[in-house]
Amino acid sequence: MLEVTGATVRFGADAALRRVDFRLFPGEVHSLMGENGAGKSTLIKAITGALALDEGTLTLAGETVSFRDPHAAQAAGIGTVYQEIELLPNLSVAENICLGREPRRGGVISARAMNARAHEFLLDLGLDVDPASTLGTHSLAVQQLVAIARAISADVRVLVLDEPTSSLDLDEVAELFRIIRELKTRGVAILFVSHFLDQVYEICDRVTVLRDGELVGEYLTRELLRIDLVQKMLGRGASELKSRDRLADDEPDAAVVLRARGVSSARGINDADVDLGEGEVLGVAGLLGSGRTSLARALTGVNRLESGVIRIESQDVRLDSPRRAMSLGVVYSSEDRRRDGIVAELSVLDNITLALQSERGILRQIPAARRRELAASWVEALDIRPPDLDRPAGTLSGGNQQKVLLARLLALSPRVLVLDEPTRGIDVGAKVEIQNLVGELADNGMSVVFISAELEEVLRVGDRVAVVRDGRVVRTAAAVELTADSLLALVAQPDEDEE
Amino acid sequence: MTATMARSERRTGAGPSAFQTFLSRHGGMMPTFAAVLILLLLFVGAEAFLRGDFISGGNISALLLDNAYLMVLAVGMTFVILTGGIDLSVGSVMAFTGILGAKLLADGLPAAIAVPAMLLGGAAIGLFIGILVQYFGVQPFIASLAGLFLGRGLAFIVSLSSIRVEDTSLLWLQSERIWMGAWYITPTGIIALSTVAIAAFVLHLTRFGRTIYAIGGNEQSARLMGLKVGRAKVLAYVISGSCAGLAGLILTAYSGAGYPRNGIGTELDAIAAVVIGGTLLTGGRGYVVGSMIGVFVYGTIKSVINFMGAEQSWMQIIVGALLLLFIVVQRAIVARSEGRR
Fold first, then answer.
1. CA spacing 20 to 30 A to A72: which of A366, A436, B106, B140?
2. Which CATH code is given to the segment(s) B33-49+56-330?
């Protein structure tokens, strides 16, 4: 039905997609699998006309096509439900379903016909809501189903579902699957993206795996074991990591630099205890929404504490702002590099010296020559490429942006470095470099909190690992005593089964 | 409106109450209702304090006559603000088209040429702003500020001093009074009210109108839904410009002359009226009927102050306070609807 060959999409220096081939067959559900940053969303956007291909061709039912915009793709029969709900909360449910093809009489929209039509589609999905009500007044699950109703309300040949189940409960998922099966019998080609393996195995006939923007392969779901699928998604990069001496101890062996007791914050973290020794890397493992980011933010003064104490080198401190935390040598790097980290328009030089200058205050300008020298030394030390100080930071690749961010924090010579997912969405090589760098920093006496969604990475980098679940630190153990499987069990296990 | 109410009342037996249904459908109208309430309070208050001679047919009819040009400006502004933009140019565009019309008439051209020229002049500046915003990615604030200076400059190029209008057909627009008892309406009033009616129709019952709302809700989503976002956005500015041209016509008829210094700061009055009428400055929510109410609130405050013989500066203070109040109310509504998700 639909075929993509040699698709390449570039964002600045990064290639988000490199020569990927992809096929969709009528009456078949095809899953696209890969980690964050593997290029799934990019490929979907290319298929649905939201992004143009830099290279490669798109063929729909035997004809080569190129979509100027999403409207063209929709007209060709490609319906899409995007990962983030792309609807309009200020308009009615019926309008969200019908907008762009609403029933009209002589150019005048007939609200009654539109509501009636929308109501039919909603009942099809087993959803009984007032089509005239404002979309924003409904729950996310309802909004998600409305988005699906919109996609199938057109005469679709290809239906793209990007993480459609992330805000649905089990019954709603079952209902969605019933609809997907029905569309299958009508001969619609369906692209289904989900990070829930169970769902992929339940509904999909075929799987294509992407990793770091490249095609790993296309497989039939029934012939591919789960463990193989996961292995293909994650790939291997571990062998390149330098080894460090690590101790098999549940308690920090050196002097405790940062000690948190009974820390709670309004959002997401409850009665957490953390000890961080000098020259130690504390890995933090937990699922998205477990409180791992809240913990990092509570320790660095970004989020205010509701209760609990934080001691730095046996002195009680009040970390009521990131600035205060910085002056005590505790710095934080956010998980969202583009939003909370890099200032994309400023040069690499400015980005690196930003924090240092702000710590000194505007009246004590660092001399320009000194700034250059400083930034150049960091660019060299962290091997930031290209080594061009005046280049806008936004044009660097993800991994190099992360290094610039690290350089900014390291320029403050902190005692405690809190890194929230520093390796997210960057290529394997840069990942390993950053992991090695964290190890070196710790060997030089710096204390690091290292948060990552990848359990193996946490195990490789951390001396000890703290497991966060439902806003609590449920277990802290030496990394060498844990395996990926035992850590996975700790991360995923519901509370009742503990100990 | 009444039909919807009746339908939802019939449903009360099962499911949500009629009130809840109403809220879920028309929650966005609350600020506009608040504006109506304030207008009524103003009327009642003025009647009580001003010895009972405020609410009279003549007074209220004069309110429409005096504010017809502002109402037309507010209608155009509503389109732009609904898309999440702003148009600062309308005051000076109104002055430009007014003086342009007066000059053409003084040069002996018939009104049949002068009037279309005024409307086209406004539309052209609107198109210029729209293209800057949509295709060159200029902030609406900056692009329309350029339009503001352009309009004012053009007005001074046409003439440095005021030009009297002798053309009878143009003066007829405001001198003709259609009486209904103690009430009357002028052709300019009819133009203003029809503009509101046409705009309400376009905004609520055409695809273009719904696209305007969609852009204000989330431009990216609107684009992904396959709506013609670029065209609608440019058109919103063209409509605002044309409305400014029409307002220039009304103002010229009203004052019997074109004057290049007309309408300094009037764009802010129009924005104030739109916001008081319940349209969110962030776009996507609001009603053109609300903007009409906003103009009435604005005009009423002005005439109450005239009645009391108080300083005109009180006008500014009261309108400022009202604006502040309304923006706080809007913030509360937005915060509530976000909290519910």
1. B140
2. 1.10.3470
